[in-house]
Amino acid sequence: MRDKMSLLGGALLLAIVIASMSLFTVDQRQYAVVFQLGEVKEVIDEPGLKFKLPLIQNVRFFERRILTLDTPDPERFITSEKMNLLVDHFVKWRIIDPRLYYESVAGDEARARTRLTQTVNAGLREEFGRRTMHEVVSGAREAIMDSMREKADRDARRIGVQIVDVRLKRVELLPEVSESVYRRMEAERKRVANELRSEGAAAAEKIRADADRQREIIIAEAYRAAQEAKGEGDAKAIAIYADAFGRNADFYSFYRSLEAYRASFAGKDDMLVVDPSSDFFKFMKDSGGARN
C-alpha cells in the first residue's frame, strides 16, 4: 500500500513538472515566440494560457508596446551652408513582426537599437545636408521629421520593426559659433530697426508738412471769409449811415462836429490852437449867438 502511494505521489509530481514545462502565460503587452529545436515554430500575439511541448519547445517573449530610442548626447550635423548644428532627437518604435525581428537581429533589442540609430542618423545627415540653417531651425522642422519617419520606417520594416515617430527635441549652434551668429543677428535686427525708424521719421515729416499746409490753407480761407464778411458789414454800415445822414444834411454836419469836438478835447490837458473864425467853431458860435 505504501509503495502504491509512493508511486502515485511520484506520478503526480511528474505530472506537475510536465505541466509546468508545458504551460505558459502570454501577457497582452508581449509577443510569445515558440521555438522548436532552435527554429521558430509559432508566433502568439493573443494573451492567455498557452501550451508547448516540454523539452522540445521553448518560448521567448518580445515587447509589443511602443519603445523609445533616445540619444544620450546631441549629434553633430552639417547643413548645406557648412554650418555645424547640435541635434538632439528621439525615436518611437515597436515590434510588428516578431518572426522577422528574431531572424534579423536574433531578437536582441540592443542590436535593433543600433540598427535604428544608424538608419535615423544617416537620414538626418542627408536631410540636414540639403537644407539651410534657417530652414532646419524654424522653417522645415516638421518636413524633416515627416521625411525621416517615412525613410526610417521603410528600413526598419526589414527587421520587423515599425517607426512610429521621429522627433527633434533641440537644434542649436555649436557654442563657439553661437556668439558670432547672435551678433550678426543683432546687427541685422538693428539695421531693420533703423530703417523702420527712418521710414517712420520720413512719414512723420510728410504728415506734419501736410498738416501745416492744410493749416495755412484753412487760415487763409478763414481770413478771406472774415475780410469778405467785414467788407460786407462795412458796406452795409456805410449804406445805412449814408441813408440816415442823407435825410438831414444839417444834422449830419452837426453830429460830425460833435464827434470832432469829443475827439479833440478827450483829455483835460489837451490844447488846440485854432482861429476863432474857423468853421471848426461854427456851431459854437451859432449856439452863442442864439443865446444872445
Automatic annotation (TrEMBL):
InterPro entries: Band_7, Band_7/SPFH_dom_sf, HflC, Stomatin_HflK_fam. SUPFAM superfamilies: Band 7/SPFH domain. GO terms for biological process: proteolysis. GO terms for molecular function: peptidase activity. The keyword Acetylation does not apply. Keywords: Hydrolase, Membrane, Protease, Transmembrane, Transmembrane helix. One of its GO terms (cellular component) is membrane. It is a single-pass membrane protein. The keyword Methyltransferase does not apply. It comes from the Bacteria. Residues 21-185 form the Band domain. It is found in: Membrane. Belongs to the band 7/mec-2 family. HflC subfamily. HflC and HflK could regulate a protease. NCBIfam families: hflC (TIGR01932). This is Protein HflC. The gene is hflC.
